[in-house]
Amino acid sequence: MSRQIIATDKAPAAIGPYSQAVRAGNTVYFSGQIPLDPRTGQLVEGDITLQTRRVFDNLKAVVEAAGGSMDKIVRVGIYVTNLGHFASVNEVMGEYFQAPYPARSTIEVSALPKLADVEVDAIMVLD
After folding, report:
1. What residue ranges of the chain have pLDDT lower than 50?
2. How many CB atoms lie within 10 A of CB 77?
3. CB contact at 8 A, 6 and 14
4. If DSSP codes are grouped into helix, strand and coil, which group holds residue 3?
5. What does the pLDDT read at residue 113?
């Protein structure tokens, strides 16, 4: 099976040896997105709600570059440095998805790249 690398300048460039996303067959695997402004490469300032919106905007840009839409996402992984932010992150996720929702895990971690407070990765299946 061949792999197709997905890249867009509408989301932050990778900050390491990885791709924004990789398509294998009809499945697309998305690398984690943190709240980086794609124009500056800097973390956005603001509360967890603003940061989470930036993360999902970044993810959405890569989803669209892969030829999909948010409703094609089947799994989301959310990583937060403070599980106390769960309700806010959950509320923002609800702005980007409609029922039927993707499967999801939410995990508290000790740290994220660039000292971000939230990171999201995903898997999408295209028709």
Report:
1. none
2. 16
3. no
4. strand
5. 95
